[in-house]
Amino acid sequence: MTTTTETQLAAPAIEARRWHPGRILLAFVVGLLLVALVAVGSVLAYEQSYTGKVAAGVTVGGVQLAGMTRDEAAAALTSAFATVGTGQLTVDTADGPQTLTYAELGRRLDVDAMLDEAFAVGRTGDPLQRVVEEARTALGRVDVAPKIVIDQPVLAATIASLAKKIDREPTSAVVTTTPDGFAQVPAVWGAEVDQASMVASISDALDSPDAPAALTMPLAVSPVAPAVTDTEAMIAESRASRMIAPVVLTHGKDKWTIPPAAVRSWVSFGAWADGSYGPLVDPAKIQAAVKSLSNKVDSPAVSATFYTSKGGRIVGVKPAKVGRKLNVPGTVVAVQGLLIARAGQGEDPGAAIVPALAIVQPTLTTDEATKAAPKMKAISSWTTYYQVGAHNGNSANITIPSMAINGTVVAPGEWFSYWKTVGVVSLAKGYKLGGAIINGHSVEGKSIGGGICSSSTTLFNAALRAGLQMGQRKNHYYYIARYPKGLDATVFKGDGGGVQDMTFRNDTQYPILIRTYAVPGIVRFTIYSVPSGRHVSFTRPIVKNFKAGYTIKKYVTSLRHGVVESVEYPADGQDVWVTRIVRDRTGKVIHKETFYSHYAQMIGILLIGRGK
Hints:
By secondary structure, the chain is an alpha+beta fold.
């Protein structure tokens, strides 16, 4: 029992002498804080001693600045790196070396940036970080790299100025057309300074203070290829040469040729659709060449016509002919296709093409005429008697156009035009100078074809009585007694382009044939067709505003004594209305129209000579 009690009493004494873990940690932390406080105090004291000065152990590019003020440090750096702004850069160019001083390039020491970095050593971060930094600088282990700057805008402008002397635009090769073929002008390569590369290279070379005082660099120049090289031009010329051959167009046994010289004139050179350089053909020039072939290619359709006996009976049919008309746009496309194929070696240069043609059917086919011929008879006729004289070219100006109409067939539904059928009126065709009404006066011997209205008026009256649909018609300026009153039809072509035609339409289901009888003093038109049972009637002319014409005498000395000359003819002035009524075989009115004519009063003038 005694031993146990002793053991129990001794235990507390042993426990009192052991350290508790929490107490040990607390003691350690307190110790650290005390050390930190001492260190911070040392840092603060150290920084206070270096206020406004570079910390100990700080160098810039090997220059010792410890303990210096900013001005002192700036002076030391400026002195140590005094050669940074001196020296020169030589750039080798094709025009010779170009020398630039470092000062021109704005090369200098960035003192402020270096001092900012030097003064920041040991003065950034929290106090503990500054303790470590101060310890490092105290051992002389912090060296700030020197900073060299170059004025980039000045450098870029300097290089750009050099580039202006070196840069050269390339010139493309071209192929031109000559009278005998093609000629090639060689390409010229261009040059371009790589300005960005030069600025970067120079900046890198002069970035170190150890850069040599004399530095030589080649100018970075890149060749610039022309848009069209000599090889591409040579290929284009070869393609164009293959195009130059006769363009032959064939249709059946007919053949038309466009010569090589004309083909060459179509060719120029430029960009193709894919951007490559090659021969081009001018569609407008091809069109002009193709259009010029129209006179050779085109052939009009010829309607069937009828043979008649001397007695006027139809005895046979002259067959119709199918016509053709050149389709110019379609043929241009075909020619273009041929030339493109030649350029691509896809076509034999001598190959022929078929032009685009439109077939023109005659208005009256052989079959239609053959069926109608046995039934055809004379359905109307009109005759005009006239006095042969100088005013009608001694009948030539009436006979020639009338005979040009002879044998004309007007198919069902077709319009007849006097001028289209007669054609050109010229002295070469046998017409002569004759009389005409010009500005309200009779003028003799001044107009080619004067007197032709006897032909147009006669045919107008024959068509009226055939019961056909009438078109253009105009009366004469004054009334001419040999014509039916109110039913004359003048035709003319004025110098200013004005045209007066006489037209009518075959509005029957059968063809009509126009036959002419013309001898000096007489012109007659007879119209043949299958009788349709039409009946034609006319009202008596209604005359109003009648003013009788008369003649006055004038005595002149320009004529010999006793000579009499009529220079104007009298004619009655009047307004006339005539109505035509056409009925079919059932009596139904097909046409009813009133023809109005205003005739001017004319005063005849008779000149009587009183001269010697």
